[in-house]
Amino acid sequence: MKVLFIGGTGTISAAISKKAAESGLELWLLNRGSRPLGLPECVHEIRCDIGNEAEAAAKLKDLSFDVVADFIIYKKEQAERDYRLFRNKTRQFIFISSASVYQKPASNYLINEGTPHANPFWQYSREKIECEEFFMAKYREEGFPVTIVLPSHTYDERKIPVGVHGSKGSWQIVKRMLDGKPVIIHGDGTSLWTCTSSSDFAEAFIGLMGNDHATGESVQITSDELLTWNQIYKSIADTLGVKLHTVHVSSDFLHEAGSYDFAGSLMGDKANSVIFDNSKLKRLVPGFSAKIRFDQGVKKSVEYVLSHPECQIEDPEFDKWCDKIIAAREKALNEIRGNLC
What we know:
- It is a single chain.
- The chain is an alpha/beta fold.
- It has a domain at about 90-330: Rossmann fold (3-Layer(aba) Sandwich).
- About 40% of the residues lie in helices and about 15% in strands.
- Strands 3-2-1-4-5-7-12 form a 7-stranded parallel β-sheet, with helices on both faces. A two-stranded parallel ribbon has the order 6-15.
- Helix 1 (about 10-20) links the parallel strand 1 (about 1-5) and strand 2.
- Helix 1 (about 10-20) packs across helix 6.
- The protein is globular.
- The model has no long low-confidence stretch (mean pLDDT about 95).
């Protein structure tokens, strides 16, 4: 099977690229020059900016593929561009959407592909919905062979999953834990969440590639393991070998406190309990089941980050912001306690 991945170096796409290469598929990568580590030399590269449609069309002119997957479509105009580029060049086009498109707040505790798509909190999610609607219209009208894949919170060895972080990633949370400082968990930490290892995700994704039954379908890929945010943070602290100190703060307060826009990432996503029904995925990919338990997967992530200084990107501004939020909460509590005495 001849496959083309556009933007194959991210958390999800790098794992799929590696799995595809190991599976003996004829893998082509189109990007601006970044090559995932560990890929064999036989992987073909097309170096260009997919955003430059004329350049991409020229380099793709004499090529066709069994599967094309674009991991970097975020807006409708990008979806329209890919439709123009690949409508006659592939037997299957995979669009990577996001489970954040699902209805917020949800009307049902169980989430599947039939759950309404509506997220008033997050522009990112609404733009993904627009892309989905465009591709499905082309499938209905012309038979454009699209498959829509919806990941939720997927992590790899370079990415430690947390809920509240700054613009530079999760290292500052890890550093606070190592320094014995309290970390902020949104809400009371008991909402349910799902974290999926990128290697598990890649296995399911490969099973959808070239799968005729997946054409015209939306399919979510997540682990079945349910965790509270308190459990997620405790697993990280346990791996670090430190005692976890937490401060719980409501999501809307964190957003209204300014400095960071948490409307989408919290109220439109992580503050909501999610329980995913993956029965459709398991019908399409018989035998698939996510195998990596979170405490096992995050252990590898923590060990990797601790042994790779380039992953330890400090965020002093976010650190100060956390201290201010925690101090404000403590001050308010002390004032209330004093008034009650």
